[in-house]
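Q: What does the assembled structure look like for these inputs?
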Amino acid sequence: MSPKFGVVVFPGSNCDHDAYYAIKKILNQEAEFLWHKESDLKNCNVIILPGGFSYGDYLRTGSIARFSPIMNSVIDFANNGGIVIGICNGFQILLEAGLLPGVMLQNVSLKFICKDVYLKVENRNTIFTKEIPSEINTIKIPIAHGEGNYFATEDQLKEILENNQIVFKYCDADGNIDESNNPNGSLLNIAGIVNKNGNVLGMMPHPERVCDPVLGNTDGQFIFNSIINHIEELVNS
Amino acid sequence: MFKAQVIIKRRPSILDPQGKAVEKGAQHLGLTNIKNTRIGKFIEFDVISDNRQEAEKEVNEYCLKLLSNPIMEDYEFSLSEIKNAEKV
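A:
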């Protein structure tokens, strides 16, 4: 059995088609759009909350989408161990929904930043990263956001570190993590985290944008292939 | 019926780059005495209830669950009764 991906569509989502295209046409997996007003996850094994500007980013990014009907199902799904990946605005929604700890502030520069960044893989033992070859030190994935400045309270950060929840950190091409390679001011250069159980990932960079070989970079495939192989292994074991 | 006025502020420990940027404008204006500019939100709405306690409870829930994010923001609000004649 191959996994079925559900891509949630909120009003204002704009990376939903990119995610669908990457899953369906490049990785040849089943994919389906899930409208935010529905509550049926249609037997999907993986839920993607895509990037975009849900509800116009009004109030705070992700704060209104978090109350869309489908989110109740996504929260139940995640709490029962279901695999959820939130990309960019999807990450912001996961934070607002309380599925991941912390909050997203405006970029320190106040600018919307759209560029390729390098990511150091801090945790390779996750559902989302285990197919990243060990010889690869950094992956290159683009960001495109105005509010990607990750922040968590002291208590939250302590827990994140204790549970090894940091998955990606912003770095340079050689994997050096410092202030000059922090595009948005994120705490500890954090670009992506998982929940305590490891089944929910939030990341600001867009892996779906770097899956098609025609674009000259396929590093995003590592993340989706990790999920696909994880599910196939589960089914076959 | 009550008119609620909510003010949402970033917690003092949270950096406010927007406030800093705006304050640069103040400096360019020559307003050298302006310091510590912080930008928050002001939200106004009506609460259809004749019971102040009940209205306060609902406003608190609105503020805590949606209007503010307690990780980075604090809120305060006032409720003023709207007399029948003022109702639109």
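The longest helix of chain B spans residues 52-67.
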